[in-house]
Amino acid sequence: MIAAASRIFLRWLPGMAPLLWVCALLAAEPARAPSLLSDTEPSALETAFSVRAGEPLRQFGYDLFAAGAPEPRTPPGAVQGDYVLNTGDELLVTLRGQKSFSKRFPIDSGGLLLVDEARPVTAAGLTLAALRAELSAAVTAALPNTDTFVSLADVRRIGIVVTGSVSHPGRQEVSAFATVLDALSAAGGVSRTGSLRRIRLIRSNGGGADGGRIVDLYDLHLTGSGDSGGADQRLRDGDRLFVPPLGATVAVAGPVKRPGIYELPPGRPRLPATDLRDLAGGPLRPGAQRAVRFGIGPSGEEVTEEAGDPDAPLFGDGDLLILTPQREDRRNEVRLEGHVHRPGPRALTRTRSLSALVAKADLRPDPYLPFAALATTDPATRARVLRPVDLAAALNGRDDRRLSEGDTLYVLGVEDVDFLTSEPVLALLRGERALPPDACQGLVGLARALAAAPDGLLATGRQARAAAGLTGSRKPCPPLFEAVPDLLTFALERSALLLGGVPRPGFYPRTGRATVAGLARAAGGESEFLDWSAPSTDFPSGPDAVLESSAPHYELVGHVRRPGTRPMNGRTTLREALGEGGALKRDVYPLLGVIERFDRRTLTRSLIPFSPQEIGTGRADRVLADGDRLHLFPAARLRALLRPTPDTGKGDAAKERLDDARMAESEPLDPAITALIAERTVQIRGAVRQPGGYPVADRTPLAALVAAAGGLSSDADPAAVELTGADGARTAVDLGSAKDKARAAGPGDAIRVNPRAQALEARAVAILGSVRRPGSYDVGRGETLSSLIARAGGLTEDAYPAGAVFTRESERRREKEQFTQQARELERALTLEIEKGDPVKAENVALARQLAAQLRGMEPLGRVVVEADPAVLRARPELDPLLESDDRIHIPKRPLSVSVAGEVMHPTAAQFVSGKSAEAYLGEAGGPTRNADSARSFLVLPDGRAQPLSLSPWNHRVNVIPPGAMLVVPRDPKPFDALEMTKSIGGILGQLAITAASIAVISR
Predict the structure, then answer these.
(1) What is the pLDDT of residues 884-901, one digit of tens each?
(2) What proportion of the chain, given as a percentage, has pLDDT over 70?
(3) What whole-number distance in Å separates Cα of residue 180 and Cα of residue 259?
(4) How do residues 227-239 score in pLDDT, each as one tens digit?
(5) 805-807 and 888-891 as β-strands: parallel, antiparallel, unpaired?
(6) I need a surface site. Which of 472, 639, 677, 727 has the fewest CB within 10 A?
(7) Residue 589 and residue 912: Cα distance in Å, rounded?
């Protein structure tokens, strides 16, 4: 790529002004304007139609501009002979015969094509075929027996004015092959307030006298061809495009392939339902369709009517068409849904009974056997109702009731039943009526049922009163209650509330056949202390049963393998309750747990911290009291609690912090427990894998705290640890010492683990070219260029250190910012020139803007001029540069030539001769052309420096020209002689010339 850039640089210098030389060297497409459209924010029209339709609707066709695809380029040789040439086109001319070369030549501002060895040819206004004949004759006259081949290498830019409802109205520069669609894309696309059907194209040759041609982009969307709609119409310089406001619109909703909002075509104020159905892609389901029109009446009210005749033009501006199938019912089927492997329809002919519909093989793991729900049709009222089913009886064949067409059996899983005791359900039973923003339809149905019967058992019964003292989980609503909203209320109305004696207390739905033992097994297994207050193992017939164990018990809550209630056998200790650590999950937080204890005598609650790690290892223990609740926490949840604000940075660490924050929001702790955790925190900073706050129960060994923080990172220095107490006292700690490792830190303390000093740079440097062992090298801090050359084996015999190219990333960024700033200043100066009102040629303005665009798109090398000769560096160590990460050094081979480029008759690479003058080298290149500005000639030295050349006859200063240097003779900048800002361009061109010389050196 670098070699190609160098060849372009050397090829484009002849016959070009410095500005054109820079543009050719860095040729790139100008940046396209960003698209106006936002796929996330609906327009006002989309919002209005979506509310009326009850589903989100988007305006059709506007996503055509959202992708921001680059403007298409026409490949060389693909242009036909009737293409009319003009200033700005670039031609590839190939000669074969007496003179052979292949070069690119532009058509200059005067319309001339200047080809080496041939007379100037007036190319502007000729077709490509005519120019081929004209240039062939000119070449034959100068070079007999030479064949000429011409093709279009690059096309000119033309100016199009785009106004109206687009993102960036105004003049747009596009390719000469650009179409209407390309020009609209260059302007940022049509906004959603603009029309896609009535875009006007007004020709620059007077073709707009009749109002211009109407362009309809719908044809491109619907048929894939833009010919008939005008989207593929080729533009000419000076054409205008006007995008009027959005016209009359209609919307199509329902089960169609492409629901949306459509603009009516010009001249057709109303469309029939069939045409709108075709615009929407047709219905999703074949068969007869029902079309309903929602129109706006004279007073603004919405009017609904059935569209009986689908071919009648009924739908006009603001109307909404909703298409639905006339029949969506199925015959001879029953359904099995919920916690099963293959939910869906079953043939009624093969599943006439309940036991035939469901078998054990159909059930997923952990089904809830005491209860299921059958949705059927009541023969008396013909209404759909839910009936309870003992799923265990159906599986054993004891419940073999007959099924009817359309019946559906809903099977619940353990997670579905657990949701009955979730916090959102308990909040509604406590009397709260505000639903969470993400409430599922089951919760909405429960809230309505409680509001409809505020004095009923579900709202005021024993279960509702008992629910006031329960704490539920924050589990998401199961999909079954979203699909069947009435099922949640139906299950609660048939539930028993088990408050003790089972691992998972809560609501358990059952049928009349359920027993205490059966529900206990469903609640996590039979308990050894089933001491129920109910006199019988069968439930009372009432629907408001509350069963509670009277035996002493404790409860495990949170991050344990089997949460729930456990019996107390005498003096149960904390270690026994945790099973010596076996009851805990692997990722439990090891340094803090909380015992929640309620004193029935004083009616007070206390929170007692403990260390699960100390309990599990036997170094601590505590006797439990009746009713104690043991809270254990996942480590990620405590990290989320102590870092609640998401990090705005990037990378995996930021993602982990964001996930922790979301966990803290989705599962909030009791405020009192949260306050306890916050006040017992130790801060760990520095070289650990997970720095942050870590709560502790009491004073904790430093080794345990560092382990909780993920351990020491690879760059940590265990001997350089600081322990700062809550009182401000600071102590130096060596974690390698057994004594210091056992040192403890308590709440409010802070630990900092210092990293080791890094001996190596973070990234390597590269040395290439004429060294004995080129490649990438890791370097230490303070390492110099001479030591790197020595590590690379030294220079080879043909090395040329005077032409060394040393590039640095920090310098590259500085140069990039400098070029961007110069581009802004150039555009500002151009704007001031135009605002003065002085006459400025349009082609000069275009060239200046092109230079600004090239400056922005340029990627500099970041070259730094250094001394690379090891002998000189040994004699003068102050010249030896220190290396940084990502430095690159290229030592070229000794060149044998001196390049001559720019405004000379024949750019060449002349043989280097010691002592030869600049005039002699210029003479070998044929001397300056008549357009040369010899007073501004300069010499680019091999090491990247530039110095002026004085070529006047009375100047006797001698310029020493080393091998590998480049003489550049610029052209007199006549195209810009009317612009005052031309004075500031010289410095920019000098920097670009030095960059080009560096590329040329690297490419050799």
Answers:
(1) 888 999 998 888 888 888
(2) 80
(3) 27
(4) 666 777 888 888 8
(5) antiparallel
(6) 727
(7) 77
Q: What is the pTM of this model?
A: 0.38
**Residue 625: burial class (beta carbons within 10 Å; 0-12, 13-18, 19+):** middle
Give the domain 76-154 fold: wza like fold (3.30.1950)
What does CATH list as the number for 765-841+857-890?
Answer: 3.10.560.10
333-416 placed in CATH 3.10.560 = yes
- The torsion region of residue 580 among left (phi > 0), alpha (psi -120 to 50) and beta comes to left
Strand partners, 171: 161
Domain with CATH 3.10.20.600 in the chain: 249-325
In angstroms, rounded to a whole number, what is the distance separating the alpha carbons of residues 96 and 119?
Answer: 17
The SS3 call for residue 730 is: strand
Q: Which two tokens stand for residue 187?
A: 């302007």
> b or e along 11-30 (b: 16 or more beta carbons within 10 Å of the residue's beta carbon)?
bbbbbbbbbbbbbbbbeeeb
Strands 240-243 and 157-164: parallel
Task: State whether the Cα torsion 187-193-199-201 is positive or negative.
Answer: negative
Per-residue model confidence (pLDDT) at position 987: 53
3-state secondary structure 575-622: HHHCHHHCCECCCECCCCEEEEEEECCCCEEEEEEECHHHHHCCCCCC
Q: How does DSSP classify residue 207?
A: T
* Cα dihedral sign, 249-254-255-259: positive
* Residue that is written with structure tokens 């000093």 in the block: 757
Please say whether the beta carbons of 760 and 780 come within 8 A.
Answer: yes
Architecture of the CATH domain 249-325: Roll (3.10)
* Single-letter residue type at 401: R
Residue range(s) occupied by CATH 3.10.560.10 in the chain: 765-841+857-890
Segment holding 405, helix H or strand E: none
Instruction: Please name the residue that has the structure tokens 């699909």.
Output: 483
- Three-state DSSP at 172 gives strand
SS3 819: helix
Average pLDDT over residues 643-664: 47
- Total residues belonging to the chain: 1004
- The span from the CA of 153 to the CA of 142, in Å, is 24
